[in-house]
Every structure is written in structure tokens, then in C-alpha cells.
């Protein structure tokens, strides 16, 4: 896209609010986003390459369309047109149906959930196909369009005087620029990270190729696989003497146990395949001071149970019994590592280390190969001397090519830089070069791919294929015994060495092909650039910025960059080949805040006065939200609307428990002239806005959407931002506040305002079924306890969720109320577990709830509710006035259905009945 002057504003929609500023079908959009996420590898961009935190394409499409469509005086028709264009109404869902034989009557008889389930993804919808729909759309909008691209172009001209220009300066995995270009917008994309820029460019090049280019790319990819297959077959390193071909190689580390003198293979479990009942069994070889590893197929229940016990338990080495040492012992792995090498720990690996040296603490051992015969049958077999000979041959072949391949960039030569993720690699194995993360066989296979791609007719387009191969073929890949398959490196964000890992031969890499296509698209430019320095003017910026220190993009992406760094300069001469760590917008504190202000001030400057920004944000820290508010304020922006869309979930949108994780869409405009208010005036407005936000979201639950408390809390932060950024606050300079050096625990004025808004929300987030008048009179820790029980009853046991609840309720001593604190097992104490502790000095001390819990414990223990009544009458001051409240509390607690609450819940019901019959 070329540089242009700011568009004039004298256009029909120049000053008219956008639909997204007034209405947004959050429930339907959440369901569509969930459907896209559940598609897994069927998501359009995931096959291009690995990235973290990609937003659903349907969310991007809805954001762009919502920003361009006008909000008219007929909101019902506005929404009807929006849903028709998105294909989210009943007619659109019928057009999207996968079963084309389904009649309109049959389709109409289905539930909305069934209709959505049987539809293609909304992002694949190409727009209405019937004249009646386009007449409805054109009549309402004043357009003359028959495609999505045409309607967006005409809306852009009506609003900005030109075809809409969309920009994203944190392109990452490329969702935003890809979808913007598909919708016909002129699109500008940039990122500081070359891996992100390559993915963004590749999305366009591979999925929006011309028919001729698609044919060339597909032929080149086919040739690459054939060439790699030809060479591997010629070498004979993947076939055995029976002509079978390897399908998986299972390796483990081995360490010397100083107490027994045995080399011990390491694994957390020796189960190889749960379904096929295949295990590895360690048999002591006393003569050679090691263990033979036998592979047993059709294992018995007893053998399966025994195999589940590995040689590494809770980071302790637990060697199997031997003749001389019949009693198993345990030794901490960390201590063994530290004692190694004369107390100096692990040796640092060098660039030319392809296998461990004999003196290294960790050795590597092949113990099982899964073969596939000519009939396609799989065979698990223990490693043989012939297998080991093939590994030695692979190493020799690699050494012959090593220097040449490193010079040409077909295998890594890059050192691993220091960083949080790298620290795990250094501590775990002391690998210091990216090549150290791969076995010789993997380096040979991956290098063959890189070399063949370099000789193909689609070298540039297939560069990301190298990244896809290495992400599935490294020493960090786990063997999944439940599915009996080789996993991949980034199942999360970790780069952690493992004891038991799996290698993919070529047969298991064949499925990694990249599917090209010829989707319609418009102008699209990608650059490597610092967002603070770009000069491109656009009318709509959509960004998904870094969330403080949530993801170390620049560090973990170096795993891929180590394989790209010498190829990128030849293919993209204007690009650099490092991740610009020093410039990365990340972390917390002044540097991050200053960077964010510079970025968003620049973007504000680079959009017309009637331009817009949409910021996609997901974070649960009130401090981060306070910083975001001040960033937008200091950048000359105000929040004109905010919507929470459920983009992640484990249990589903409809009927699922509250596991959704929402993404907040902040819609921003230039601030212009604003009113100055005092703190108390801002707080009053925030309370009104938060209350309205919660009521609006809770109304959506009638449409089948269930919000988690964390999502509702997130929405209140966004509501607070609307108020804060739309006003000046007396005595607060946002730039100075952001960059102020604070003492530990000191909070900014805006942070305190955000927390107050959060507490407003918490007061309204009453547990279902509890009497509102009772909730209103409870204290902070009482509210935390009762809301925590509801959270626990939904199966939520993450510490962070309870921590967020405590912040909302200002319950600073919440941990004292926990009965279990282990990760992902957090729960509250029951009445019986509390016993008579903390009646007078805990966080609930002296409260009616604490006395009620004590009376329940007495009733459960003594089996006599009269004794519980006696406690309440004797300990609760003015109990006659509190009796009704106590009965309501007992009614609520008696409904607890958690298994460990059964006895106490029964006691609550007994006690309630006794109290109702008792005199005062």
C-alpha cells in the first residue's frame, strides 16, 4: 500500500458512530469464536506455522465489519444487516450448512446449537448468495454491493473517502492482516519479530496464491517430500532387514547411579501404548551394570500397573531393584547433577556437540522402534544392535554435511541467548546452541528438508515448512502413550528438556504438508518494523498488543529463527534476522509503559480525526489494566465502547461451566476536548458504568452464553476504562503517573480507581440463589468464602481464580480460608475442617458466617442440632435479630453438593430446621 494523505472527512458516514460503538452480538460471536477454536488444526492459519495467542478470524472479521457499518436510528435493522453479512443469522447458518441435502424445513426444526454445529466456520463464509439479502443490505446502507469486499469498500469510501485501510503493528501469527486483506481492505502489517513477519507474509503467499502459483507451490512441496524420501531410502537409515519402515523412535536419557554403579534409564512411566497394552520393562544386567530394556506387547494388568511407575518420581531417581540392591532407594536428580563433574554440575555443550560426550552426566539411549510393515501393521520392538548401527550411520552422514549445511543455513549455528525460557534449557541440560536441542537423526532429516526446499521452485513460500518440521522433530517432543503418538515441541510456551522423548521418521512427517489455496485478497504489505517508528497512515488500527510479560515471544521464537536466520536475508533482503530483544515491547514498569505510549501515540497520529482503533486485550491484573487506561489516555485516545467476547473455553459456550476466557475489544477514538472531573465524580460514574456493564452481560446469559466471574471482572475493568479515558481527572497526569517510580506495594491513583470499580463488580456478583439482602450486609471475607464455594462447585481449582476473587472483595487474608493450596487443586475449608480454630482471630472472626459454620461443625460432630442452636444463642450477640439471617445462610450452605461437603451440608439442613422451630 502506498503512502497517502489524510482522507477528507466530508463523507456521508464521516461523523456517524460505528455499529461496534453501539451494539455487538457478543453471544453469537462468542459461540462462533468457540467453534473456530474447537476446529483445532482445521483453523485456517494454524497449518502455516506455530504462533501463540492468535485471535479467531471470525472475531477479526466482526471487528472490521462492526467498525465500518454505521449505527443508525434503527438498531434492530443494524444488527440484522450485520448478522446477515457475517452469516450468523438463521438464513446465513442455512447457507453455511455442511449437509446440503438438508431442507429449509428440516433445518428450521433444529435448535440454534444444532444449526451452528452443522455449519462451516463463519470465517469461511463468503457472504450472502441471494438477491433478497443484498437488497436488504443495500437498502439499509445506501450501497450497491453484491460481495463482502464490495460492501466494505463502499462503506470505507462513505466513511473515510477511500477504500478502508487496516493496519496491525503487532501482527504476530497474522490473523488481523490476513482477514482484513480477505475482506478487500488495503492492509498494512508489521512486527518487530522476523518469525512473526514471515508467518504473516506466508499466510498471504500460501493461502491467497494465484491459481498458477498454487500449482507451482503444491508441485514444489510434493517434490521436496519425494526428494527427502529418495535420499533417506537410498541411505537405508529408516528401513530394517525385513523391509519395514520406522514409524517412531523412542529415546530416553540415562544417568549413572553412584549408589549402585548402574546406568539407569530415565522415564516418568514405561507405558508405551495404553490402548495396545505395550510397555517397556527394565531388566538388570548385573554383569555390565546397566538395564536391558525389553518391549512387551499385550501386557497384563499387573505389568501395566508396574510400568506406570517410572525411574523418575517427583524429580527423584528411583532405580529398579538389582541383585546387589534389592531395596529401591531414592536420590534427588538435582543433587546428582550438582555432584557431577567434580561438583561443577553439567558441562556446557558446544556448537559441534552432536551427541553427549562419554563423561557427560546425561547419556542418550534408543530403547524402542515402532515399525510399519507392507500391510500397514504396526510393530513395537526393543532397539537392536542393527538399530544402533543405523543411528551411527545417520550421525556419520550428518558429520559429512555439518560444516557445509551450517554455512548455508540448513541447520542451526546460532547460540541460545540468556532468558527465562533459555534458563530452563541451561539448568536442565546446559545446551548452549540451538542445534543441541536435536538428535543427529533429526538434524539430518530436518536439514534434508531445508536443503530440498532451497533447491525447489517455491523456496520462499515453503520456508515455513522448515519451521513446521522442526517443531515436531526435536529432543523436546514428548511421546504420548495415551494416543501412542509423537507430540510436538510447543504444547505450551515451555522449552524444557525431558527425560523421555520421541523422534519422527519421514513417514510421521508426511502429514505436515502445508495446504495452499487461492482465496480472494486485496493489497497487503508486510514489513519488519518497530511500531514506534512506522509512518504508514491507516483509517483503522486493530492491534493485539503484548500483555506485559505474559509471553516471551522474542525468546521462544528464536527456536524457529535459528533455522531461518541464514535463509531470510537471501529471500527477504530488506529484513533483519534477530528478534530485536532490546526493542521488544514487553515486561512491566517504566520501560514497557513508555514503549506502549510511544506506540499508541504514533498510531493515533497516523489515523484521521474520524479514524478508529480496536485493541484486543486479555489480562486479569488490575494493575495492567490501570496502566492500559493511562497509556490510552496519554496517547490521546478514549474508549468509546468495550465488548467481552468468549474466545477460549474448555467446556464449551452453551451449558458449560464458567471456564470461558474472554477477550475484551476496546474501541477507541481520538480524545478531543474532554471534561475534567474529581476522583469522587469519576468513581460515581464508574459505579454506574460497571453496574450497567454487568447487567448487559448477564442478560446475554439468556442467549445461552455463560460468563465466568473472571470474565465479568474483566468486563468491569473495560467499563472503568470507558469512564477514565473519556475525562481528565483533576490532579492526574497519565504520562507522569505511568512513569513514576513507586515503592513496593504503592499503587497509582488510576490503579486504585480500577480496584474500586472491581469491588463494585464483586458486590454485584452474588452467588446464585443467595438472598440479596443477606449478601449486601456481608463483610469482605464472608463474601469471598461464599463466592469461593460457588466457584469450587463449578470445578474451578486454579489458584489465580481465587486470587482474583480476593482482590475484587478486598479479602486480603483469603489464603487462611483454604483447605487445599496445591496447584489446580485449590479449595476452601469445610465447616468441619475449620473446627473451632479461628473463631476469634481469623479472617472470619466474629462474623455471623463463622458462628454458623461453627454451629454446623458442632451439629455434624455431635449429631444433635440442639447443641448447634445453643452455640449460636450463646455466642452471637443479639441473636434474636440475627436469627433470620442465620437461617438464610444455613439454607444456602445446605445446598452444597460437593462430595466433601456432604456431612456438613446435611448438618446445615438439620440446624436450619431446628432454628426455624426454636424460640428466641
Automatic annotation (TrEMBL):
Region (Disordered): 316-340
Coiled-coil annotated residue ranges, if any: none
Biased segments, Polar residues type: 324-333
Annotated ranges, domain DUF1156: 23-84
Pfam families: DUF1156 (PF06634)
Protein name from the UniProt record: DUF1156 domain-containing protein
Organism: Deinococcus cavernae
